[in-house]
Amino acid sequence: MAFLQKSMSFSLMGTLAISCLLLIVLWAQEAAALPITSHCKIDASDFQRPYFTNRTFMLAEEASLADNNTDVRLIGDELYRGVKMQDRCYVMKEVLNFTLEEVLSPQSDRFQPHMQEVVSFLTKLSNQLSLCRISGDGRRIQKNVQTMKETVKKLGEGGKIKVIGELNLLFFSLRNACV
Ligand SMILES: *[C@@H]1O[C@H](CO)[C@@H](O)[C@H](O)[C@H]1NC(C)=O
Ligand SMILES: *[C@@H]1O[C@H](CO)[C@@H](O)[C@H](O)[C@H]1NC(C)=O
Ligand SMILES: *[C@@H]1O[C@H](CO)[C@@H](O)[C@H](O)[C@H]1NC(C)=O
């Protein structure tokens, strides 16, 4: 009986030791992977501010009323095709950059009063991603983002309205990919 207890406690110790070892290995792997994507992060609290969330959704709603093209969706799984999970935040960084630089800034006199507040909110998110890089080959990502940009360009004015109308989707995608 005493022997049995002893061997059981030995095997328990063994299991514990292996678990510890496994944890250390996992931790080391994570630490090794960290430098690449650790900057691809946005603070969760930024997505929990009712005021800016409300303004973003109000703006999107307003624009989507003016969007008469229901066949095209810009923000969706297409953007992630062939892209590794850990690079999704980088994809959204690129989409956010495009949205700010080529859609919202040139339209900043439209859709007031919400536009200005939403631009400053999204700029803050964009700044948090300024050091975000990808872990490997970025060609696939560039291609996906380029396809989206070309779709917007092809739709002309309507394309820009559509981007604004999908700001709610951009909000959710950024949160899902970067928090
Ligand atoms: C935003 O807030 C206003 C009141 O300030 C409210 O009427 C509106 O329904 C809210 N919209 C969303 C999308 O949360
Ligand atoms: C967009 O990306 C370009 C090139 O990386 C950068 O110079 C610019 O500051 C970015 N703009 C925003 C609004 O993040
Ligand atoms: C849809 O919107 C575009 C751009 O605002 C406009 O040029 C076009 O005439 C509209 N089409 C319809 C069917 O309303």
Helix coverage percent of residues?
55-70%
Give the helix/strand class.
Answer: mainly alpha
| CATH topology descriptor of the largest domain | Growth Hormone, Chain: A
- CATH top level of the largest domain is Mainly Alpha
From the alpha-carbon coordinates, what is the Rg to the nearest angstrom? 23 Å
What does this structure look like?
Pfam families: IL22. With 179 residues, the protein is an all-alpha fold. It contains seven helices and no strands. Helix 2 (50-66) packs across helix 4 (114-128) and helix 3 (88-104) packs antiparallel against helix 4 (114-128). One 2-acetamido-2-deoxy-beta-D-glucopyranose binds at residues 97, 100-101, 126.
List the helices and strands and how they pair.
Blueprint: H1 2-37, H2 50-66, H3 88-104, H4 114-128, H5 139-155, H6 157-165, H7 167-178
Helix pairs in contact: 2-4, 2-6, 3-4, 3-5, 3-7, 5-6
Bound molecules: 2-acetamido-2-deoxy-beta-D-glucopyranose (3 copies).
The site of one 2-acetamido-2-deoxy-beta-D-glucopyranose (NAG) has 4 residues, from helix 3.
Task: Summarize, please.
By secondary structure, the chain is an all-alpha fold. The chain contains seven helices and no strands.
Which features would summarize this protein structure in a list?
179 residues, mainly alpha, Growth Hormone, Chain: A, 69% helix, globular, 4_helix_cytokine-like_core, IL-22, IL-10_CS
